[in-house]
Design goal:
The complex is a heterodimer of chains A (323) and B (316).
Chain A lengths: L1 H4 L3 H4 L1 H25 L6 H26 L7 H19 L2 H24 L5 H20 L4 E2 L3 H8 L1 E2 L2 E2 H19 L1 H11 L1 H6 L4 H27 L1 E2 L8 H10 L11 H20 L7 H23 L1
Antiparallel strand pairs in A: 1-4, 2-3
Helix pairs in contact in A: 3-14, 4-9, 4-12, 4-13, 4-14, 5-6, 5-7, 5-12, 6-7, 6-12, 8-12, 9-10, 10-12, 13-14, 13-15
Chain B lengths: L11 H22 L6 H26 L7 H19 L2 H24 L5 H20 L9 H8 L1 E2 L2 E2 H19 L1 H11 L1 H6 L4 H27 L10 H11 L11 H20 L4 H24 L1
Antiparallel strand pairs in B: 1-2
Helix pairs in contact in B: 1-12, 2-7, 2-10, 2-11, 2-12, 3-4, 3-5, 3-10, 4-5, 4-10, 6-10, 7-8, 8-10, 11-12, 11-13, 12-13
The chains are: A mainly alpha (323), B mainly alpha (316).
Chain lengths: 323, 316
């Protein structure tokens, strides 16, 4: 914790963080081995591509959220934000026929919601979990009202490439995932702004006193989280080729789970985007395995909820041990 | 019914205006826009419909006073309602069914309290996890289908009346009086006040803080379990998504009622008024033929507004 406040979280405690990441990779590998024994369908090219695609989508949703959680905040509005962004983007594409206007609408809507969240948390000083929880219900209401039970489907092929296209046999979202992992990690680890985000999470008062513009950095992380939700909404839209009011439902819990499994502490100040990628991979493997073993999808919220609790429990225990 | 609660805290007068004014404005606006709003039948209807919410919002007030939160209440109520329906269909006994709902509710409440108090998991994330678990169990137990064929004896709990007063209103009044006694007239209640602002002092004074905290969450779960009886009676069925989101209305009622999320002071009359406000808002928008999606958006805006006002007040 104090290490992060000095601005070098990874370098001062390399052994523990690296070890933690290795454990998680090992867990992911173990899951792969077990699943390949349990199901013949697991190690097929089709399924591997499927796992990569799901991991990419989950990572996109969870990457902005990782920054929010690094500041000891939370964004519960991600799923609802994805719902509204996807529906607005869908109707713009339908109305204008232009995929680019649709992309701009989706990302714009997501970013605007993030900006609102940031304003609620900083200007009005509402605790983040309750501000984004209120935002979640407001967005859900607006989306359902806007859609009125309708479905918008059938988008131009150029737009669909975004979610279902391939380059060299690998789905396009996987490249986007790698791109955002690189940009995001460089931002978090190698820039002053990124280090300030760690510092805010580790100790907001100390950060404020050392001259970090806390409010502006907080607005930034909520805006990034909103923008990434907007981007994720476009990938989903392009993939499933239709938009409904409930498109973003049940996406928030998995995103939070991915961040927490990835070792980012809910108490702020420690964690990383590469961890979140491993977290997204582990959760995707679990859900994919359940799917292959034909376990009823009704078990998914139960499993995800239990995983969240386990991850936070481990985090809280490690935190107490280090104090 | 307000007798035991009329403890005139210094801030009482300062607080009345907020929620009361919102309620009055809503009443006037809705009364003017919808002719069927301000009728005795409709007002009674609002009160009956608000009972389920009141049963959730009262313990939610206590939980929020301890600087906690229970996001799982709606999902727990739903799962309790399914347990109740399955039990009554299997055994035919209403008391066994109610017992099942109470066991499910208190079980989840204890789990929440244990996660928060013993494992030090932040309340909003602990109860988000148990929300997932309860929702998953509801889906698994029913395979996504409604449980129907609820006997009349359970429907009557919601639709019947006692001495001319609808039973839900009686239940709501009793629950309100009991919670007031608990909060303002017992040592436990005093500790609840201290759990929010002065937890460390309480611990140093030798109070079993963890057990107190677990008890607060367990109470919330148990009351959600009891509310499942009314919910099942109202719908004459148990549906695996019926109660989802109810915790949001409860949190809204508490926030509108002026209980602070940060200072550990709570106010049950405020929560009661908050519950009526949410009920009036939903009922009024319903009469204006606005869909439930608009109601949800309005309540979301109401919560943010209430928190904004609360923030202004805490800085003042």
């Amino acid at each position: 914790m104090s290490t992060a406040a000095h601005g070098m979280p990874a370098r001062l405690t390399p052994s523990r963080d690296t070890l933690q990441a290795l454990y998680r990779l090992l867990a992911a590998g173990l899951l792969c081995v077990v699943l390949s024994f349990l199901s013949d369908a697991f190690l097929t090219p089709g399924n591997i591509i499927n796992v990569l695609r799901q991991t990419a989508l989950l990572f996109m949703m969870a990457s902005g959220l990782t920054l929010v959680i690094l500041t000891a905040g939370l964004d519960l509005s991600i799923g609802a934000n994805i719902g509204l962004s996807a529906c607005l983007a869908a109707s713009v594409i339908k109305a204008t026929g232009s995929p680019w206007l649709g992309v701009a609408t989706g990302i714009g809507c997501g970013t605007l919601v993030g900006l609102l969240n940031g304003a609620l948390v900083t200007t009005l000083r509402i605790p983040s979990f309750i501000a984004t929880y209120g935002m979640m219900w407001m967005l859900t209401g607006i989306t359902y009202y806007y859609m009125g039970g309708e479905t918008i489907h059938g988008f131009p092929a150029s737009f669909r490439q975004f979610g279902s296209g391939y380059f060299l046999g690998v789905p396009i979202p996987v490249y986007m995932m790698l791109l955002f992992l690189l940009i995001g990690s460089a931002f978090a680890q190698r820039t002053i702004w990124g280090q300030e985000i760690y510092a805010i999470g580790a100790n907001p008062v100390a950060a404020q006193l050392s001259g970090v513009p806390v409010a502006r950095r907080l607005v930034l992380v909520y805006v990034v989280s909103g923008a990434m939700a907007g981007l994720a909404s476009l990938i989903i839209l392009a993939r499933i080729n239709s938009a409904q009011g409930d498109i973003g439902e049940e996406l928030t819990l998995p995103a939070i789970a991915a961040v927490l499994i990835g070792g980012t502490s809910l108490f702020g100040g420690s964690g990383s985007l590469s961890g979140t990628l491993i977290g997204a991979l582990i959760l995707t493997l679990v859900l994919n395995g359940m799917n292959l073993l034909q376990i009823n999808a009704a078990w998914q919220p139960l499993i995800t909820g239990t995983i969240v609790l386990l991850a936070v429990w481990i985090d809280a225990r490690a935190r107490r041990a280090s104090e | 019914m307000t007798k035991p609660c009329a403890v005139a805290t210094p801030s009482l007068l300062a607080r009345v205006p907020g929620v009361a004014i919102v309620l009055a404005i809503l009443f006037v606006v809705l009364g003017l826009t919808s002719p069927s709003f301000a009728t005795p039948a409709n007002v009674a209807n609002i009160l009956v419909q608000s009972t389920i919410l009141l049963l959730l919002a009262l313990p939610m007030t206590l939980i929020i006073m301890t600087e906690g939160l229970d996001l799982s209440m709606g999902a727990v109520l739903t799962f309790a309602s399914i347990a109740l329906a399955i039990t009554v269909l299997a055994t035919g006994s209403v008391s066994l069914a109610l017992l099942a709902a109470l066991v499910v509710g208190s079980g989840f409440g204890l789990l929440n309290g244990w996660l928060v108090a013993a494992l030090d998991i932040p309340p909003f994330i602990a109860t988000l996890g148990t929300l997932g678990i309860a929702q998953g169990l509801s889906l698994v137990a029913t395979d996504g289908q409604s449980v129907v064929g609820i006997p009349r004896s359970i429907q009557v709990v919601y639709s019947g009346s006692m001495l001319g007063i609808p039973i839900p209103i009686v239940i709501g009044a009793v629950a309100f009086a009991l919670l007031c006694l608990l909060l303002y007239r017992t040592r436990f209640g005093t500790y609840v006040f201290a759990l929010g602002g002065n937890r460390e002092a309480l611990r140093l004074a030798g109070v079993p803080v963890r057990r107190m905290l677990i008890a607060v969450y367990a109470l919330g779960g148990a009351m959600a379990g009891f509310a499942a009886l009314l919910m099942t009676g109202r719908m004459s069925a148990a549906h695996p998504t019926a109660g989802l989101g109810l915790e949001f209305d409860a949190i809204a009622a508490v926030a509108v009622g002026g209980t602070s999320f940060e200072r550990g002071d709570g106010w049950l009359i405020g929560t009661l008024l908050g519950v009526v406000t949410v009920g009036v808002l939903r009922n009024g928008l319903n009469l204006l033929a606005l869909p439930s999606s608009v109601q949800v958006a309005c309540i979301g805006a109401l919560v943010i507004f209430a928190l904004f006002v609360d923030g202004l007040r805490s800085r003042a």
